[in-house]
Write a structure and sequence with these properties.
By secondary structure, the chain is an alpha+beta fold. It has one domain. It has 6 helices and 8 strands, in the order αβββαβαββαββαα. Strands 1, 2, 3, 4, 5, 6, 7 and 8 form an 8-stranded mixed beta sheet that branches.
Length: 184
């Protein structure tokens, strides 16, 4: 966790970074111990908030390789910390998310939003320097958890992940806008 935190702090130099320790509760014992969510304030690298997990890699790494996740949002809200904890638990409790996978949130991303799923993608807003996190025992790959709508998930299932990303590019979506219109 410390290496992931250091990587995030170096990448987001000039940003305030808050460390939130998250207890997933007794029902999660043994699945993910010691989860942290790093809350990165807007700064030189961007005007959005970033929420980064630290602890997934240690829970489910294989041969020194594993994942962490980043989500970007328009505001600082405990809801997003909770959502990242949910994503981490989902991943570490056996679902093993990877690039192009998705997770249902079970409710809107924020009240009134049509986005009710997270799709796992490359961290386009931050680039490969955030994605590649070297660790003493291997490396973590930090992937983007992008909030999407049910109709976008259905489109992706029918036409593929690349086709959905192309729709996002064509529509010029603002990925931090919880009220953006669906592209599919």
């Amino acid at each position: 966790m410390e290496a992931v935190e250091t990587h995030v702090r170096v990448f987001f130099a000039g940003h305030s970074v808050e460390v939130v320790d998250w207890d997933l509760g007794a029902g999660s014992a043994g699945v993910l111990v010691g989860l942290r969510v790093l809350v990165v304030a807007p700064g030189p690298r961007g005007d959005s908030w970033a929420y980064v997990t630290a602890g997934c890699w240690a829970a489910v790494e294989e041969n020194g390789h594993g994942l962490e996740f980043v989500m970007t949002a328009h505001i600082r809200d405990e809801r997003f910390v909770e959502l990242m904890a949910m994503l981490a638990h989902y991943h570490c409790a056996g679902h093993r998310l990877g690039l192009e996978d998705s997770m249902p949130i079970g409710e809107p991303w924020v009240p009134g939003s049509a986005c009710d799923h997270l799709v796992i993608s490359l961290p386009y807003l931050h680039g490969p320097d955030l994605e590649r996190c070297p660790l003493p025992e291997g490396h973590a790959r930090i992937l983007w958890a992008l909030p999407v709508t049910t109709s976008e998930i259905e489109f992706r299932r029918a036409h593929g992940h690349e086709a959905l990303e192309q729709l996002f590019d064509e529509a010029g979506i603002v990925p931090t806008d919880p009220f953006r219109p669906a592209v599919a």
